[in-house]
Design brief:
alpha/beta, 6 helices, two-stranded parallel ribbon, four-stranded mixed sheet, about 45% helix, Diaminopimelate Epimerase, Chain A, domain 1
Length: about 200
């Protein structure tokens, strides 16, 4: 994290869950994307999805930037009960034609690098044609399918998806500190649950 702080800064950022600094989405596109992101958050109440677009610089730094942003950003429109450690961040750099997906470590038992690759692959052809909204909607749709699948698997085999981190006593206080920029040393456990429709 120290390397990332030196590269990108060590102060916290206040962002919205959909931050389009590259200006690649039109207003009605943003509405559609925010609706889809909110749907995932409603279906999986412990998780949130965030999207950041902008010029990151060298492609080699995209993964590092996503990791840094998920750790340092305070997403103002995300409920305080959802810590960044339960977030899924998609970073799109239209200038370098690169994209990445980073997830908080509370999701480690549920997601793997191959999963993020599969989600991003759904959007690849669209993004090459600069059809960013359609690509992101495909990516989010695949992510939702994946979370549903992992939710079913976790119900069948809960031990496989069990967190190895102890649950802290005052979860609400820790999350408030995260939103205020203070990083806790212990975070709550999470279980991916799908809300019945």
């Amino acid at each position: 994290m120290a390397d990332s702080d030196r590269m990108f800064g060590d102060s916290g950022l206040k962002l919205h869950s959909l931050t389009d600094t590259a200006g690649i989405f039109r207003r009605n596109d943003r509405d559609r994307l925010e609706d889809e992101m909110e749907r995932i958050g409603n279906d999986f109440p412990q998780v949130f999805v965030a999207v950041y677009t902008g010029n990151v610089g060298e492609m080699a730094n995209l993964r590092q930037f996503g990791f840094w942003l998920l750790n340092r950003a305070s997403f103002e429109d995300v409920p305080v009960e959802k810590p960044n450690e339960a977030g899924i961040l998609i970073v799109i750099d239209p200038d370098s034609k690169a994209a990445g997906m980073t997830f908080g470590y509370l999701l480690d038992p549920f997601l793997e690098e191959q999963d993020t690759f599969n989600c991003l692959s759904r959007a690849h052809a669209y993004w090459l044609e600069e059809r960013y909204t359609e690509g992101l909607l495909k990516c989010l749709s695949q992510l939702q399918k994946l979370l549903r699948k992992r939710s079913r698997q976790a119900r069948r085999d809960p031990e496989r998806y069990e967190r190895k981190v102890a649950i802290p006593v005052a979860v609400g206080d820790l999350v408030r500190k995260i939103r205020e920029g203070n990083r806790p040393t212990v975070v709550p456990s999470i279980e991916v649950k799908e809300v019945a429709r």
